[in-house]
Design goal:
Helix content is 35%, strand content 19%. By secondary structure, it is an alpha/beta fold. The protein folds into 2 domains: 2-90 and 404-446, Urease, subunit C, domain 1; 92-397, TIM Barrel, CATH 3.20.20.140. Helix 8 crosses helix 13 (327-347), helix 9 packs antiparallel against helix 13 and helix 14 (366-377) crosses helix 15. The two termini are 18 Å apart. Residues 96, 98, 132, 356 line the site of zinc ion (ZN).
Length: 448
């Protein structure tokens, strides 16, 4: 792991030289000097929980925040990274991806597999993601390798499989899924999958769809069995009726946001039951911007995250020939989904950032920044949008992804304040993953 983490002394020599020698002295007896120790100084800590920015220094020990100081400790002996008043936010977590790579219309896919995507997205400040369906055995293997440090990549959380009806959604990709038609079969499948320790259970429930779906009794059995085993469920669905059913059976979260107007009272009901929403606004709406807003794919992060072929595919002659006249129609649909999300936000529903990366209209890593932006367009404050992609995602996954003492030391250091302009999340200076400063050039190289 360490071999691909650039030595701080090498990349930070500039910053180190700027340290005032009167501010710090290096006593030989200082205990804080293990290689896993790093002191971040002159930090603007963007605390989404208190909704305040405070200045200070952050001590990292063994991948966790060991202490925070208003004034850095004297006699500190160890590695110091002076952030020169840059902004520190927790690492971004994408709650809905398919981490195989990127696709675009009329373009060659850049499929690279979970391990490489996990490395690649660190560049964008994504320090963790939840894969909601891929090849089960490959997911298990990639997660194991990432967790044991075989490569330096974003933390991999995974549903490992997809629970669906025979010939239902997820079965069309040629990958093995777990299918069931009855509550009894559902219980067997959940118990069997649980042995491989999925971080969440992904369920497809959409009786409204053309593809076959499990029925409500089977859906209920999956959720009940998962709840008994203490594993959260994330439900892929399409309509507000299916959202109501998900509330009834006690699902933990639903993903995607229906495109029809939200029925009166439902947002409050969701808020009351505390069911979480992962709306995946980017997969629903960003195809419009990829085709019709030239600035969106011009971002430096896009260039880094995929191939020129994929980028060109979105605005090619062939693509425009097919969809070039759709802008007004698509924008109307997009506006409806934004209005639906706004209703959820207003009701106080917990919303988490997930992109459904791997599909058209998304770019692995980059789209998390787009999702955060779209949250603010649906009425979230910049504070709330940041929390949705960081601290609150951590809470759902049972990890401490805050900036408090004891939290995991996965951070993004920004050159400008995300509270002033949410798009500043793209102005990335440094990424720190579990206490290690990421060599962004190297993870990019390893990620293709
Ligand atoms: Zn998906």
């Amino acid at each position: 792991m360490k071999t691909i983490v650039t030595k701080l002394t090498a990349i930070l020599s500039g910053a180190m030289l700027m340290l005032s020698t009167t501010q710090f002295s290096y006593a030989a007896d200082n205990p804080i000097s293990s290689p896993d120790t790093l002191l971040l100084t002159q930090v603007q800590i963007v605390d989404t929980e208190k909704q305040k920015i405070r200045r200070g220094a952050v001590l990292i020990e063994q991948g966790k925040i060991a202490a925070e100081y208003a004034v850095p400790p004297a006699n500190f002996k160890g590695q110091i990274l002076n952030l020169n008043n840059r902004w520190l936010i927790p690492g971004l977590i994408d709650m809905h991806v398919h981490a195989f790579g990127n696709r675009a219309p009329h373009a060659k896919s850049d499929f690279a597999g979970t391990e490489k995507i996990s490395q690649r997205v660190l560049y964008t400040g994504v320090t963790g993601f939840v894969d909601l369906f891929g090849h089960e055995q490959s997911q298990i293997a990639a997660r194991q390798k990432q967790r044991t440090g075989a490569f330096l990549g974003a933390d991999i959380y995974s549903s490992l499989s997809c629970l669906t009806a025979p010939k239902g959604h997820c079965t069309e990709y040629g990958l093995e899924t777990r299918t069931m038609s009855t509550p009894e079969e559902a219980v067997v499948q959940v118990q069997s999958l649980a042995k491989a320790k999925p971080d969440v259970i992904k369920v497809v429930y959409q009786p409204s769809d053309d593809q076959p779906s499990i029925d409500k009794a089977t859906f209920s059995a999956i959720v009940q069995q998962s709840n008994q085993l203490g594993i959260k469920t994330i439900v892929h669905l399409k309509t507000w009726q299916e959202v109501s059913d998900a509330i009834e059976v006690g699902a933990s979260a639903f993903t995607h946001i229906p495109g029809t107007p939200i029925p009166a009272g439902l947002a409050d009901k969701i808020a009351k039951t505390k069911m979480v929403v992962i709306p995946t606004m980017t997969v629903h709406t960003d195809l419009t911007d990829f085709l019709f807003d030239k600035t969106v794919l011009a971002s430096e992060l896009v260039q880094a995250m995929t191939t020129p072929d994929i980028i060109a595919g979105y605005q090619s002659e062939q693509t425009m020939k097919k969809w070039g006249d759709r802008e007004a129609k698509w924008r109307k649909l997009d506006d409806q989904r934004t209005a639906n999300l706004a209703a959820l936000v207003k009701a106080g529903v917990t919303v988490l950032a997930g992109t459904d990366a791997g599909n058209y209209g998304t770019i692995q890593g980059y789209s998390v920044h787009r999702e955060i932006l779209k949250f603010t367009q649906a009425g979230m404050t910049n504070w709330q949008a940041l929390a949705a992609a960081t601290t609150k995602a951590g809470t759902f996954l049972g990890i401490d992804n805050t900036l408090q003492t004891g939290a995991q030391a996965s951070f993004v250091v920004l050159d400008a304040s995300p509270i002033e302009d949410i798009q500043n999340t793209q102005k990335i200076h440094t990424v720190i993953h579990q206490g290690q400063v990421v060599d962004r050039a190297l993870v990019l190289k390893n990620g293709f």
